[in-house]
């Protein structure tokens, strides 16, 4: 809400767009890994294949969640208004399947290139998403949908 005009801003007001935060974490991890590699997996482990599977699992979850949003007629972007509370598809199990998909994607990249830097960057990425995005989204959804969202929050976990 704009205090001066009393206008309600119909979006979450997220501090950052999640795909940008994800891309920055990956780029930072790749640069750090290039400057000072920190492998964490045994040499015999098929890191590329295992990382690829984890990455694809995250991507599949993200696509499933985005498709569910589109079918419900609501926006995916944090800068756009939310039209409805979605409680189908992956949203039956978690309130944040897109962000879980992003975490899995980051873990998959970390495994694929065997980089402890990318694993370490999960912490700041989590903090940015949790406090800069999810907290604002939840406050926005509670303001906009009231008891409907509160009931959904009581039924479905934030993460897993």
UniProtKB/TrEMBL annotation:
Record keyword ATP-binding present: no
Alphabetically ordered keywords of this record: Membrane, Methyltransferase, Transferase, Transmembrane, Transmembrane helix
Transmembrane intervals: 20-36, 43-66, 98-129
GO cellular component: endomembrane system
Location in the cell: Endomembrane system
Molecular function terms from GO: methyltransferase activity
Membrane topology: Multi-pass membrane protein
GO biological process, one term: methylation
Source species, domain of life: Bacteria
Name under which the protein is recorded: Isoprenylcysteine carboxylmethyltransferase family protein
